[in-house]
Amino acid sequence: MQCGASVAGFGGQTKPVFHKKAKTTKKIVLKFECTKCKAKRMKPIKRTKHFELGTDSKKGKNEYGGKYR
């Protein structure tokens, strides 16, 4: 008998469920790739919810031309 009447419904969740998610935003990471040797390099920027690359509307000086909100 795999799941009898006396055992059914008891025990609850078997693995722990994580509830304390601290971060609401992710870090924006630009991935550069060399056109000659195909070497890749990751460049992290700021932590933001919304990022647009190469827009005209800039907030302050930004070398990537992105828009932070």
UniProtKB/TrEMBL annotation:
Could you tell me which Gene3D superfamilies the record lists for this protein?
3.10.450.80
Q: Which domain of life is it from?
A: Eukaryota
Q: GO:BP terms for this protein? A: translation
The keyword Ribonucleoprotein is annotated on this UniProt entry: yes
Region (Disordered) residue spans? 48-69
| Record keyword Lyase present | no
The GO terms describing molecular function are: structural constituent of ribosome
Q: Which UniProt keywords apply?
A: Ribonucleoprotein, Ribosomal protein
Which residue windows does the record flag with biased composition (Basic and acidic residues)? 50-69
GO cellular component, as recorded: ribonucleoprotein complex; ribosome
- Similarity comment: Belongs to the eukaryotic ribosomal protein eL42 family.
- PANTHER family named among the record's database cross-references: 60S RIBOSOMAL PROTEIN L36A/L44
Name of this protein: 60S ribosomal protein L44
